[in-house]
Amino acid sequence: MNVYRVRFAPWIPFVDPILGEDNKFHLGGVAKDVYEGMKVFMDFNYDAVPQSDNIYGAKVNGTWNGMIGSMVENETDISGPYFIDEDRSLAVEFSDPVAFSQLTIVSGLISSNRDPFLILAVFSMPVK
């Protein structure tokens, strides 16, 4: 089983870092729920590491910093969430955004449409 490298920064409620007993921040919030669900249904495991400077990613003097930089440098497989802008969409592969915003995660694992306005509807399933 592959262990995917996940990088995160706070973005409540999607990413809600939890201070553990080891005095380090650990992944919490909706993102953790999604990744834990993926473990149940897929050949998926992950190691989540907080972005130490909480920088999401900007291009500075032609070089990406923050979580986008860690993706570009192949230090991270999945990171986010982010708002998609043109520069970011040219640097990394985004997953499809959710219906209520352009908020999305970045993944080097899947190909995606680079159209930043592609919207997926959120749906619910009845559970018996």
From TrEMBL:
<keyword id="KW-0812">Transmembrane</keyword>
<dbReference type="GO" id="GO:0016020">
    <property type="term" value="C:membrane"/>
</dbReference>
<dbReference type="Pfam" id="PF10613">
    <property type="entry name" value="Lig_chan-Glu_bd"/>
</dbReference>
<protein>
    <recommendedName>
        <fullName>Ionotropic glutamate receptor L-glutamate and glycine-binding domain-containing protein</fullName>
    </recommendedName>
</protein>
<keyword id="KW-1071">Ligand-gated ion channel</keyword>
<keyword id="KW-0472">Membrane</keyword>
<keyword id="KW-0406">Ion transport</keyword>
<dbReference type="InterPro" id="IPR019594">
    <property type="entry name" value="Glu/Gly-bd"/>
</dbReference>
<keyword id="KW-0325">Glycoprotein</keyword>
<dbReference type="GO" id="GO:0015276">
    <property type="term" value="F:ligand-gated monoatomic ion channel activity"/>
</dbReference>
<keyword id="KW-0675">Receptor</keyword>
<keyword id="KW-0813">Transport</keyword>
<keyword id="KW-1133">Transmembrane helix</keyword>
<feature type="domain" description="Ionotropic glutamate receptor L-glutamate and glycine-binding">
    <location>
        <begin position="10"/>
        <end position="73"/>
    </location>
</feature>
<keyword id="KW-0407">Ion channel</keyword>
